[in-house]
Design a protein that fits this description.
Helix content: 40-55%
Strand order of the largest sheet: 2-1-3
Radius of gyration: 17 Å
Number of helices: 10
Distance between the termini: 27 Å
Largest sheet: 3 strands, mixed
Shape: globular
């Protein structure tokens, strides 16, 4: 599933012009080009490499990510895209659950596509597994474990209900983006807990 999502994103990226590569993504402070560079860095990451990089970044995840973007961002969008092609079939991973690879591809795929008006039909299993992992992961590691102690997430397009509290309903993808700190449109979420979720984001 990870490889399929990488291939689909590469296909979308081949159609972009240089101006679109420079558009702000949903990831604060990063352009589309930056997010692609991050995905290259993420695909190259090994367990040992992650630990070494984190030590060099003084255990600052943001600094480590910024360093990876700087390292993998090519001189042109085409160069960065070629780097993504070269790593698309890799199976390496940092010391994290395997489904973290799905989280990377789905969320960052939307970080890129949504600002550009692109749509993509993600594999439902990939989205659901990403949502389940994010809601089991503490906020200190980029997850939403604490958040789902306050609201109950119910996917309208999958047999998934997670958390406790006022209900928030929406597609699994919209819920995933919302709990991952991305703004979604007001009509994507419904239910008495929607306001709580929007405030948390």
């Amino acid at each position: 599933m990870v490889h399929a999502e990488r291939a689909a994103l590469i296909d979308d990226l081949t159609r972009l012009d240089d101006e679109q590569w420079g558009e702000p993504s949903l990831c604060d402070g990063w352009t589309v080009h930056d997010v692609v560079a991050h995905l290259v860095d993420s695909a190259r990451t090994t367990r040992l490499g992650f630990v070494v990089g984190l030590v060099r970044a003084r255990f600052d995840f943001d600094r480590q990510n910024a360093s990876g973007v700087e390292r993998e961002r090519g001189a042109s969008p085409q160069e960065t895209l070629e780097r993504l092609r070269q790593v698309a079939a890799r199976r390496s991973s940092p010391p994290a659950p395997l489904d973290s690879r799905l989280v990377e591809e789905v969320i960052h795929g939307e970080d890129i596509r949504r600002p550009l008006g692109l749509t993509h039909a993600y594999a439902q299993e990939a989205v659901v597994r990403s949502l389940q992992l994010q809601t089991r992961t503490p906020a200190s590691f980029g997850g939403a474990k604490e958040l789902v102690a306050r609201v109950r997430l119910t996917a309208v397009d999958a047999d998934v209900s997670i958390g406790a509290g006022p209900e928030v309903s929406g597609t699994a993808l919209s819920l995933l983006l919302a709990v991952s700190g991305r703004r979604v449109t007001p009509d994507e979420l419904a239910g008495p807990g929607a306001g709580l979720l929007a405030t948390a984001v």
